[in-house]
Amino acid sequence: MDTVVQNEVVAKAKSGKKAAPLLATASAGKRTQALRAIATRLRAQAADIVKKNAEDVERARQAGTAASLLDRLTLTPARMEDIAAGADAIAGQPDVLGEGETWTRPNGLEIQRVRVPLGLVGIIYEARPNVTVEAACIAFKAGNAVLLRGSSSALQTNRLLVAAMQEALQEVDLPPTLIQLIESGDRHDVDELVRLNRYLDVIIPRGGADLINRVVQTATVPVIETGIGNCHVYVDKAADLDKATRIVVNAKTHRPSVCNSAEKLLVHQDVADAFLPVIVKALSDKNVKLKGCAETVRRQPHLPVAPDQDWDIEYLDLVMAIKIVNTVEQAVEHINQHGSHHSDAIVTEDYAASRTFTRGVDSAAVYVNASTRFTDGGEFGFGGEMGISTQKLHARGPMGVRELTTNKYVVLGSGQTR
Amino acid sequence: MDTVVQNEVVAKAKSGKKAAPLLATASAGKRTQALRAIATRLRAQAADIVKKNAEDVERARQAGTAASLLDRLTLTPARMEDIAAGADAIAGQPDVLGEGETWTRPNGLEIQRVRVPLGLVGIIYEARPNVTVEAACIAFKAGNAVLLRGSSSALQTNRLLVAAMQEALQEVDLPPTLIQLIESGDRHDVDELVRLNRYLDVIIPRGGADLINRVVQTATVPVIETGIGNCHVYVDKAADLDKATRIVVNAKTHRPSVCNSAEKLLVHQDVADAFLPVIVKALSDKNVKLKGCAETVRRQPHLPVAPDQDWDIEYLDLVMAIKIVNTVEQAVEHINQHGSHHSDAIVTEDYAASRTFTRGVDSAAVYVNASTRFTDGGEFGFGGEMGISTQKLHARGPMGVRELTTNKYVVLGSGQTR
Prior knowledge:
The structure is a homodimer. By secondary structure, chain A is of the alpha/beta class. Chain A has 15 helices and 15 strands.
């Protein structure tokens, strides 16, 4: 690896770790003040940032980047205002640090379990520059120092966004090293970052399956996996088929590029003949490309057969595969075996089927008669979110500010020994 | 790797994962019944197990195993009764599954955050066969399937203990694959186990620093690090020196081979001349070998100088290194830089010093005027414990039954879409 890259990653991790205790022991008022100052700076510098962003976008365009990615990369004055308003909203959320319980043991020891920051949080993410501010602000709200590693295609934009946030920190007498960006753009800096156990307390990868898998395979720092979503809607034999149609169409088409969109439709055999013609038409009208299992294709012969590997993957596009199942238990088994343990829904009016599904499906969020699209920090009422955890350790489902903390036991004695 | 080994590890992980949902959806009453049956079976088979254990111990003795390790390996009728009583105690603890909160969103969606088991928990541990039962029962109480990988020196004993637990499971109509032991004894089965993300939800290594580091370096399955303890007692300038003496002697000598023992003593320079002669005599009387920093040795010239690397290591023995510091802040900085973030204590009668220490030290448990030896699930009031987590993700400090669970969101709707 390039020594300059390595030096940058290590130096920033080291200075971030060193700064972290200053934020951990700062007051909630100081953190709020800093977040307000960040919002103000971002608004003041919005025009400059939008201008510099246009250069990143133009460079990406010339490099042949797809239109959908160019859109994600682009900042407009309206988007800058959304970003600044997001920082303000996080500033306005209640503080969670110092929350806890306390109890006293028979020997008189008073034990306090207190919520404290994680320390230095590394966030590795892809093209969207709004993540730079949103992720930094949520982690900061929880009292953490942040080390950001964004996409090289957004480097100039991210530099200005981070510079604005650092100026805001200095304005309120906090060290700018609390929010830092790795600027090298070298792919290997990710491999370096995820093994710096000495400085980093946690790594959160936000992005596609390739990024997440690479981090999980190489990291020695604890990782919170986010956002791979191979989500299902299962239409039970006791489903209200109108409700089912609305839910499936929403879950598939409302925003097909995000992780809580449905990718697979499971249909109980008893309602397949009634439901398939309706849903195939409804989804086709929305330009969804459909594939099916052998049983589906037998009933809808114009559909192509879905290859075996399709059941395990996320399309992130207007594509959906349909499978016919014999029982709710078979639906549960299919979801647990092939899904990504993110968000899965049953549509049913049957109590027992709803219980079998919600108890049996091993996913972060399990829905009855609602779209999978609700798995989101905002929709759950958490304010912003850092991502959707699909692992079981530490945080599962939408991660808000509270999920970016840990606890410490403070034990107050008067000379106790064992 | 030996294919037979690999096959055993994969086959048991697969069958454990398959069995896990049966336990997750079993009632609390059924889990209690199983744990009671385990206690009964262990009592009934205690004599046979003690007899077979003697063979393991004899084999280890012939292989030149140290006396302290032989002691840890040995089961007696009294220890068997302790083990069975432990299973009974876990059975009697309140159940934690299904606990949670519920709230309703403005759109009418009812969101439930429900405590559920992790799934299949892998536990890798060293010689003590009592861990086989204790770890299995705690994880089982939390609704998890368990895959145990113990020390090859205890293999015959562990086989009988697991067989007794499996018979108890069958007696209450639960699959024996809920509690399994990897029997190969091949070192490489650990490397295999920690990368089986498809089947294992979490890996908990319980043992020495070498085992823990090896697991952290090689695992792709999420890990909860436990039990490396380079713990400190800091004697402040405002310490009650009698209290300090009692606490230091207890923290060092009560049970020197465990992770919450103190390994380092930090002394404020203002009390060094008064305290050092007293504590050096008190510890020497208990056969503690002492070493010191240059300042300590200047005052206590008969002590050897502690090599630099000593400040970062765990002795797990009657050895202690003493360092003189100028301020409480310097003590905090030393502990954060060299400690293992496990348990650290201040002895002081000064309010501000106690606050600086408890807020500044980044450890799982921070004590004021009490021995570090209290970091323990039982002493904290959690019933048993799976180990002491020294990481910040998921669980920090003593891990009881509650720490071996995760959550699931169950979202109940009436047709909501976005």
